[in-house]
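ok new one. same drill as before - structure tokens go in, u give me an amino acid for every spot. 323 of them this time. try not to just spam alanines like last time pls lmao
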């Protein structure tokens, strides 16, 4: 019995219904195909116990429309059972309905990677329901790439190709490691990006032009040093530019940066409220927005500060210290 199941076995249903009075209209959007799809019965059962109206997705992109419907229904507590892709669609639905500040959002990790859930201290489905009920509410930043919202990251270049190219089968077998495996395969064939990046930081504009392996823009995720959770409430992106370098240096740089926490020659890190990424030769750049692919020659990114209320677990740290 895992921790989640142990806790579930000791919780009486009447305790579950003793929720917050103010959250009187609740809806749960369930992706029955995410992860290994073994969460369906558990989410349906617990969702009903906790008093949620459950809407199940029937196809790719469906969570956008279901979220818009939930807003029209006047829902004020919205649970998302799925992975990061489902969450991305729900955020898009909230933006479409102009309702980012009208609902309180909680996640029930039922995907493959569940990066967002992990970063806000939600580790299991049962615990996720409890966090929705009793957890702290925090207002986090939402990033926009053009007019498309993202909460975790916008990645251009090598890692975008890797995260998009990672097959469902690989993800199922290897989880997080699948991204690393695909990344190593991709690095051998990747040509690099010819880009200009203009960053607005502390009111000052700085431009970087050159050949890059990738540009990583994190809201919830931090990519430098040991990575981990970024400050999601500071109104700033964590921007990392990894310059083009010989493949043989790449691993050394990655190890120095991630494991040893050293700054390295080929990696620039800056915090910014807004940035523009332009391809210099008019070629489209492949981006990954919260893991979903998109393609642009030019992208303007900005942060909407403290735009979304989310239910966070006790492990969530509003001001994580960079390690
Ligand atoms: N009924 C459905 N049939 C097929 N695809 C669906 C259905 N409902 C949702 N989807 C799609 O499933 C995709 C994957 O969902 P999601 O990203 O949440 O799970 P995951 O890939 O397992 O997890 P993670 O993104 O955390 O690694 C999304 O792109 C979504 O559009």
């Amino acid at each position: 019995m895992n921790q989640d199941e142990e806790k579930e076995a000791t919780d009486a249903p009447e305790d579950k219904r003793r929720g917050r009075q103010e959250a009187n209209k609740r809806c749960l959007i369930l992706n029955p195909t995410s992860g290994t799809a073994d969460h369906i019965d558990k989410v349906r059962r617990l969702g009903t116990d906790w008093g949620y109206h459950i809407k199940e997705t029937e196809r790719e992109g469906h969570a956008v429309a279901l979220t818009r419907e939930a807003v029209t229904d006047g829902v004020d507590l919205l649970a998302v059972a799925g992975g990061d892709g489902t969450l991305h669609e729900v955020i898009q639905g909230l933006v479409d309905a102009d309702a980012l500040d009208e609902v309180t959002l909680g996640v029930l990790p039922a995907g493959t990677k569940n990066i967002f859930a992990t970063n806000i201290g939600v580790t299991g489905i049962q615990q996720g329901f409890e966090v929705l009920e009793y957890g702290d509410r925090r207002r986090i930043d939402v990033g926009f790439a053009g007019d498309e919202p993202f909460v975790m990251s916008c990645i251009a270049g090598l890692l975008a190709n890797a995260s998009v190219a990672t097959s469902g089968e690989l993800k199922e077998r290897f989880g997080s490691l699948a991204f690393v495996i695909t990344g190593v395969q991709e690095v051998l064939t990747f040509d690099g990006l010819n880009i200009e990046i203009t960053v607005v930081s502390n009111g000052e504009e700085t431009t970087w032009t050159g050949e890059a392996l990738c540009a990583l823009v994190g809201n919830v995720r931090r990519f430098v040093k040991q990575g981990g959770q970024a400050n999601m409430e500071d109104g700033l992106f964590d921007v990392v530019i990894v310059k083009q370098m010989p493949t043989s240096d790449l691993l050394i740089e990655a190890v120095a940066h991630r494991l040893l926490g050293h700054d390295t020659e080929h990696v620039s890190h800056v915090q910014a409220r807004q940035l523009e990424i332009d391809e210099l030769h008019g070629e489209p750049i492949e981006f990954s927005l919260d893991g979903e692919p998109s393609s642009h020659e030019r992208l303007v990114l900005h942060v909407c500060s403290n735009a979304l209320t989310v239910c966070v677990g006790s492990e969530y740290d509003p001001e994580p210290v960079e390690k």
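Residues 5-10, 12-18, 172-181 have pLDDT under 50 and may be disordered. and btw Residues 148-305 form a domain with the Tumour Suppressor Smad4 fold (CATH 2.60.200.40).
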